[in-house]
């Protein structure tokens, strides 16, 4: 018996990427005073679209991480560090909103499944 839907699988991927985005942002913030540290990130939309198109089931996505890359176009301080707390704060707020949206959509998806289950029992 299948316990997930295509939508719940996609939302799971979305939440995994959002969680990874928060971890990357936290790492960038933690290294704001590390000389030579370069801000890292990934293109959320591109990676999410790629994961949706790869056709892998949710079980096949465990451990799949978005490829990290240095963020270009940021101003580096004299010590070579280019982390901007303002930028990272915005990234964190965006990731938190994305996570909240994902959990609300997943909650709605499971409510639909539960409704279908209860409909069969009547």
TrEMBL record:
<dbReference type="Pfam" id="PF00460">
    <property type="entry name" value="Flg_bb_rod"/>
</dbReference>
<keyword id="KW-0969">Cilium</keyword>
<keyword id="KW-0966">Cell projection</keyword>
<dbReference type="GO" id="GO:0071978">
    <property type="term" value="P:bacterial-type flagellum-dependent swarming motility"/>
</dbReference>
<protein>
    <recommendedName>
        <fullName>Flagellar basal body rod protein FlgB</fullName>
    </recommendedName>
</protein>
<comment type="similarity">
    <text>Belongs to the flagella basal body rod proteins family.</text>
</comment>
<comment type="function">
    <text>Structural component of flagellum, the bacterial motility apparatus. Part of the rod structure of flagellar basal body.</text>
</comment>
<dbReference type="GO" id="GO:0030694">
    <property type="term" value="C:bacterial-type flagellum basal body, rod"/>
</dbReference>
<dbReference type="InterPro" id="IPR006300">
    <property type="entry name" value="FlgB"/>
</dbReference>
<dbReference type="InterPro" id="IPR001444">
    <property type="entry name" value="Flag_bb_rod_N"/>
</dbReference>
<comment type="subunit">
    <text>The basal body constitutes a major portion of the flagellar organelle and consists of a number of rings mounted on a central rod.</text>
</comment>
<keyword id="KW-0282">Flagellum</keyword>
<feature type="domain" description="Flagellar basal body rod protein N-terminal">
    <location>
        <begin position="18"/>
        <end position="38"/>
    </location>
</feature>
<keyword id="KW-0975">Bacterial flagellum</keyword>
